[in-house]
Amino acid sequence: MRPTSVAIIALLVGCYGLPTQRYSPDSGSDAVEEAVLDLALPIHDGLDFKAYRLKYRSNKKSIYGLMCVPKAEGRHGLMLWQHAGFDGLKDEWDGRGPLCAMWASRGFVFAASSFRGEDGSDGNVDICGDELLDARALYTLMSSRDDVDLTKVIVGGEERGACVAAQMAAADEGIKFAFAINGFYDLASWRTWLTEQVAIETDDGRKERMQVLLARIAAVDSTEGGQLERRSPLRLVNAGMTPLFLVHGDAHPEMPRSEACRMRAAMLEKGLTVPAYSFDAGGALTAAPIDGCAGLATALPVEGTVDLSSMRLYAGESSPLSKRAFDDVMTVVDGVLAFFAKPPEP
Known about the structure:
A hairpin with a 3-residue loop joins strand 1 and strand 2. The chain has 10 helices and 10 strands. The chain folds into 2 domains: 261 residues, Rossmann fold (3-Layer(aba) Sandwich), CATH 3.40.50.1820; 45 residues, no CATH class. Strands 1-2-3-5-4-6-7-8 form an 8-stranded mixed β-sheet, with helices on both faces. It has a two-stranded antiparallel sheet with strand order 9-10. It is globular, with a radius of gyration of 19 Å.
């Protein structure tokens, strides 16, 4: 558990009106019944933003998170980030990571939940399950801020966080744009793929990571029948969902490209036209329409995969690959922000 008991004044702001859902899974357990902010502790004063450690209640659980607010006056867009892995916010925990600065410099309040069971939060890790509650509760709290422009709300996530981002894109009102990086969107098909890969994987480290993921999926499957299907964003795709911007690398060792392909195909089947990015033969990132799987990060090596959280690996380095990867990250971000620069449709 990370230390949090430092001379603080707890901020209790009570429960707020909740962002509504346009679609809800079978069980009502995904509904946010309580969203209370108990703590907003300043932890870092950046060049153009201030970072705060958050402690909030999500349906009776105490959850930690992070908020970074631009210093510029006025109302700002809202970026809701859903992290990868099972170790909390990692480099973003102290407010000095790349994502806070990157989004704040572009005029967005940045908010990220640690999710339950991580960074000292109550409860246990619950992949694509109750962590969705934690993300929604934070969205509720951020929506109540006077400095947030609710016409510019983005949700994004990576790997396991991409699942949560896709769930919110499919079901939550008010989100204007969503993106998912190297995600999985059908838990059952992802489990099948991982099982096949474990049988043939020769790298012990990769095999161990796959086995950990399979154990996480098994824990979901053991809770009650139908959970794998119920939690899969692929099942939630609907014609009224927020456009989901898919980015996926060919060589990700644990997240197959086929997951992004299936999600893309499902959205096309519902008549959705969404932005997408592909890579040309030289590795440069270019905007391009894609059909089904075509054009999704063809032959991109995993170390060059566009990954917002891996920006910390490239900043300040001088190698061509690092600079290219850094530039690719910024291109994706600016491509997302360009969505808001378009004139409204009549």
